[in-house]
Specification:
68% helix, mainly alpha
């Protein structure tokens, strides 16, 4: 009984192996049949989207529908440089949709980033092209993925301040509504910062004006006191004595002249010396 069961299991295993081999051979025969109707076309790494458009039209004519054949045909048309850029996909392709995955990665890695294509779309000039040639050129730049919403988004971005554009450029995967709200927050934060800086500038300017006025007041007070001193000396007949002159107010700044040790600010030149605490 046991030997009979073992024999049945072996037959089942052999049957599975044969079915898998038959499926593999059928795919190979189908692929060879398709290849007879497909023209070898080396991949255009400078215009991947156009290459895919032409090749997929040929797939339809030749009746190629299975992912296995499309994927292998695509890989066979890549040059060494292009293969290097997608070697991670080729070395470890997904179980399903190999062709679709490789196509997406080739377009992404070889094509211009969308924001660059959009900028070129808006900045492009007619040059020596006819209007119809220029229109077709713009169509090629736009591609199939650039919608009206994306055009509006980039037109809107171009009219924002540069610092706002730079922040939003790294978040273009978000919805247009979210980007607009983020732009509002950036502009509000910028205004608050500019207001704060402007306030600091005004305070600095006022303080500088006060300092200058203080210097002028001290100079005028010194002039007045000198004139008063000369008037007094003329009205008296006392002989002149040679004494060490006392400190004049000119040696002190306006703040120390008026507030002495309680002055909250000092503007040079000023001879005020802070009193050292007495040691016990």
């Amino acid at each position: 009984m046991c030997s009979h069961q073992t024999q049945v299991e072996k037959l089942v295993d052999e049957k599975s192996e044969l079915e898998a081999r038959i499926e593999e051979l059928e795919k190979e025969l189908e692929q060879r049949k398709y290849h007879q109707g497909l023209i070898p076309r080396p991949f255009w790494n400078r215009m991947p989207s156009l290459w895919f458009s032409i090749t997929e039209s040929e797939f339809k004519v030749a009746g190629v529908t299975d992912d296995y054949t499309k994927y292998n045909y695509l890989v066979s048309q890549l040059d060494e440089e292009t293969t290097e850029k997608v070697k991670d996909i080729i070395s470890n392709p997904p179980v399903r949709n190999k062709y679709v995955k490789l196509k997406e990665e080739l377009n992404k890695r070889l094509g211009e980033p969308e924001h660059k294509r959009m900028r070129q779309l808006f900045d492009e000039k007619l040059k020596d092209r006819t209007p119809s040639q220029f229109y077709r050129h713009l169509q090629c730049l736009a591609g199939a993925n650039i919608t009206v919403d994306k055009i509006l988004l980039h037109l809107w971005l171009r009219r924002l301040p540069k610092h706002c554009q730079e922040i939003l450029a790294s978040r273009l995967e978000q919805t247009n509504t979210k980007l607009a709200e983020l732009a509002d927050n950036i502009m509000e934060a910028t205004k608050a910062s500019e207001t704060s800086n402007a306030h600091d500038t005004v305070v600095d300017n006022i303080q500088q004006s006060v300092d200058e006025l203080g210097k002028q007041v001290v100079a005028l007070e010194v002039t007045v006191k000198r004139q008063q001193s000369r008037s007094r000396s003329r009205s008296t007949s006392k002989p002149r004595s040679v004494n060490t002159p006392a400190k004049t107010p000119a040696e002190l700044c306006w703040y120390h002249t008026h507030w002495g040790s309680e002055a909250y600010r000092c503007v040079p030149p000023c001879s005020w010396k802070k009193e050292e605490p007495t040691k016990d």
